[in-house]
Design a protein that fits this description.
The complex is a heterodimer. By secondary structure, chain A is an alpha/beta fold. Chain A has helices at 16-19, 32-35, 45-48, 69-76, 89-97, 108-111, 141-149, 152-160, and strands at residues 2-9, 54-57, 81-84, 102-104, 117-121, 126-129, 132-135. Chain A has a single domain, classed as Aconitase, domain 4 (Alpha-Beta Barrel), CATH 3.20.19.10. A seven-stranded mixed beta sheet of chain A has the order 4-3-2-1-5-6-7. A five-stranded parallel beta sheet of chain B has the order 4-3-2-5-6, with helices on both faces. A five-stranded parallel beta sheet of chain B has the order 16-15-14-17-18. Chain B has a four-stranded parallel beta sheet with strand order 10-9-8-11. By secondary structure, chain B is of the alpha/beta class. The chains are: A alpha/beta, B alpha/beta.
Chain lengths: 165, 410
């Protein structure tokens, strides 16, 4: 699969409290989450982001709380992928489990500027940027399978129906 | 040669494992709270799961917004209660019983050697009981509830050895803050942080929990502390004790006697300095509580400093559990705290996550015994949270500014 989109840049240690502040979590209406995505860093972000955009970040993206609303806020805001120097592990699992492509790629932060268009080839582990091509180690097979299923729910349904080993 | 965590996994699945292996593991005990519960229930519905795998191995604890602060928060709790009843989950703990990571061990639901998963990032706290405790999100927890299993990458272990005795006015919180400074916010990502050595053996089980609690602030998958007689006494049950082989991995050495009171400056947990370096910083609020430092010994240490004195900055004390509150009440600690001007909150998470019982306003400053000082963590984006020990928080509340607690500890 190939994903192409416009880049929004964030730094190191973007925690889940700034991705979606706790005061919005206890809402019966889930549609409020993308409206406040990354509000802790940039209160205007949700009004600027467009479907298909890509987040590029430094190290340890998604650290802190296990709140899965952080992934949902990003996904439902239309973000097509997050590429970071590294991810915090609970956020990483939550992302793959919800079918949001998360790509760990060393050197990405300095290879792009905000507003750039980048192209990610998920199958080959290649990212094309205006400063050249970066490669990364594709996900292990199990995680690829979960992601390709569209998330852990769909993976589970296929598995119990016997379509995956 | 193997680490304790490798041995726990190998023993549980009946197959030798090495770091980096992807394996499916059975989960011996699972728990979640009112914060993560509603999403878990939604995911189970999407998965078309009517009955969970084993309700006897599941606990549900109301701690995050307990009691609820809004009609929506209350409605979400109604949903979780209904689920608990439908599924026949008997280990259900209502508002006021305490924080999940405190209630689960207090009730003896876990034992050394087990694999435990919690839908909360601070599940690593339970690594202080010689078991593997992994924090996860809602979808992973739903999968565990449906199947009794999960997948993991077998983690490497970083072992930290602490030797020497703690100085006066210094607690295990100061030790762990120093470790966060050294390792950084992502230095232990996907790894286990094992704490060992003479200092750890000397620490109470509660003080060990304080250290294990903050492993996630360094990115760790979990923490591990070998179980001993103190662990067994706390849980009221024995389990299977696993130990890391000597020389299995390299160790970081810390001389505990060289550690002074520490404090994490906004907005990173790894921005750690000595309290003495930033004395005098004015504060509006002090918070004593959370899964890091809301236990009996924390309240006791604060009471020793506050006895017979009056606080200048409002002090919010939230015991980690009802058992903690009852014991502190019987021993006169609650009297001392209230007479000093402290406000006693309902056992639970309190203001740590910034939704109730002490949310910060614009530009307000709080010194807290909790574990996160991120932007807006406890309230307004412009507010600030400093993280420190119960002793430092108590002493600072007395003066209305950050002070080194050694001034008050004899």
């Amino acid at each position: 699969m190939i994903i192409s989109g416009r880049v929004w840049k964030f730094g190191d240690d973007i925690d889940t409290d700034v991705i979606i502040p706790a005061k919005y979590l206890r809402s019966v209406d889930k549609s409020i989450w993308p409206k406040h995505v990354l509000e802790g860093i940039d209160p205007t972000f949700s009004s600027k982001v467009k479907p298909g955009d890509i987040i590029v970040a430094g190290k340890n993206f998604g650290c802190g709380s296990s709140r899965e609303q952080a992934v949902l806020a990003i996904k439902w805001a239309g973000i097509s992928a997050v590429v970071a120097e590294s991810f915090a592990r609970i956020f990483f699992r939550n992302g793959i489990n919800n079918g949001l492509p998360l790509i760990e790629c060393k050197g990405i932060y300095n290879a792009v500027d905000e507003g750039d268009i980048i192209e990610i080839n998920l199958d080959e582990g290649i990212i094309k940027t205006k400063r050249g091509i970066l490669t990364y180690k594709p996900l292990p097979k199990l995680l690829q399978d979960i992601l390709n299923s569209g998330g852990l729910v769909e993976y589970y349904k296929k598995k119990i129906k016997g379509n995956v080993p | 040669m193997a680490t304790a965590i490798e041995k726990i996994i190998s023993n549980t699945i009946g197959k030798e494992v090495s770091p980096g292996d992807f394996v499916e593991i059975p989960v011996n005990f699972a728990y979640f709270h009112d914060g993560t519960g509603p999403l878990i229930i939604d995911v189970l519905r999407e998965m078309e799961v009517d009955k969970i795998f084993n309700p006897d191995n599941v606990a549900v604890i109301f701690d995050h917004a307990a009691p609820p602060y809004s009609d929506q928060a209350a409605t979400l709790q109604v949903k979780v209660r209904k689920f608990v009843k439908e599924q026949g989950i008997k280990k259900f703990h209502e508002i006021g019983e305490g924080i999940c990571h405190q209630v689960v061990p207090e009730k003896g639901y876990i034992a050394p050697g087990m694999i435990v998963c919690g839908a909360d990032s601070h599940t690593c706290t339970l690594g202080a009981f010689g078991l593997m405790a992994i924090g996860m999100g809602a979808t992973d927890m739903a999968y565990i509830l449906a199947t009794g299993k999960t997948w993991i990458k077998v983690p490497e272990t970083i072992r930290v050895r602490f030797d020497g005795s703690l100085g006066k006015g210094v607690s295990s919180k100061d030790l762990i803050l120093e470790i966060v400074r050294i390792i950084g916010t992502d230095g232990a990502t996907y790894k286990v942080l094992e704490f060992t050595g003479e200092t750890i053996k000397e620490l109470s089980q509660s003080s060990r929990m304080t250290m294990a609690n903050m492993a996630v602030e360094m990115g760790a998958k979990t923490a591990f502390i070998e179980a001993d007689e103190k662990t067994i006494q706390f849980l009221g049950k024995e389990g299977k004790i696993f130990k890391t082989d000597d020389d299995a991995i390299e160790e970081i050495h810390i001389d505990s006697s060289s550690i002074d009171p520490k404090i994490a400056i906004p907005y990173k947990v790894s921005n750690v300095k000595s309290v003495s370096e930033i004395e005098g910083e004015p504060i509006d609020q002090a918070f004593l509580g959370s899964c890091t430092n809301g236990r009996y010994e924390d309240l006791l240490e604060a009471a020793k400093i506050l006895k017979g004195k009056k606080v200048r900055a409002r002090l919010i004390v939230v015991p980690a559990s009802r058992d903690t509150l009852v014991k502190a009440m019987k021993d006169g600690i609650i009297d001392i705290l209230i007479e000093s001007g402290a406000i006693i909150g309902i056992p639970g998470c309190g203001p740590c996550l910034g939704v109730h019982m002490g949310v910060l306003g614009e530009n307000e400053v709080c010194i807290s015994t909790s574990n996160r000082n991120f932007i807006g963590r406890m309230g307004a984006r412009s507010s600030k949270v400093y993280l420190a020990s119960p002793q430092t928080v108590a002493a600072s509340s007395l003066e209305g500014k950050i002070v080194d607690p050694r001034r008050y500890v004899r």
